[in-house]
Specification:
With about 140 residues, the chain is an all-beta fold. The chain is built from no helices and ten strands. The chain has a ten-stranded antiparallel beta sheet, with no helix packed on it. A hairpin with a 2-residue loop joins β3 and β4.
Length: about 140
């Protein structure tokens, strides 16, 4: 899916299951907006819940066009963190990201265009982390 098709508001539901048994859920809104520099801002805000507690959560990522062979804009996109660090290519199918010594292996699953829903899945393993995370994004009903 072209990130420009994401512009607007999406609802998200996230499940996080740690190998040691802890389970969390999060839900909220993800807003995708075009920036003047051509990037797409991906801003989430919601609530993270676990047995006996909850806390507000936010995060901001960007979808950025990859550079083409001539130095201009290419056709591919990448996901970056808010501070500009690279995260992973924006592509359907499998992607990996090494975060320190922890490996994020996952992928983006997108339905037919224009997609009413899409999903992200991560299996995170390493000395610091060991969990599965599944997030489903849907357009709000009017």
């Amino acid at each position: 899916m072209d990130p420009l098709q994401l512009v607007g508001t999406w609802l998200f539901v996230r499940e996080i299951r740690h190998d040691h048994g802890a389970a969390y859920t999060a839900d909220g809104e993800a807003r995708f907006s075009r920036e003047d520099d051509g990037r797409v801002r991906w801003a989430e805000q919601g609530t993270l819940r676990w047995d006996g507690g909850s806390t507000p959560v936010t995060r901001t990522l960007f979808l950025v066009r990859e550079a083409g062979p001539d130095g201009g804009s290419g056709t591919g996109w990448r996901v970056t963190f808010e501070d500009g660090r690279d995260f992973h290519p924006w592509t359907a199918g499998a992607v990996e990201h090494l975060c320190g010594r922890d490996l994020y292996a996952g992928g983006v699953a997108v339905a037919a265009d224009p997609a009413p829903a899409w999903e992200l899945r991560w299996h995170v393993t390493g000395p610091e982390k060991d969990y599965l995370m599944h997030t489903r994004y849907t357009r709000p009903t009017r």
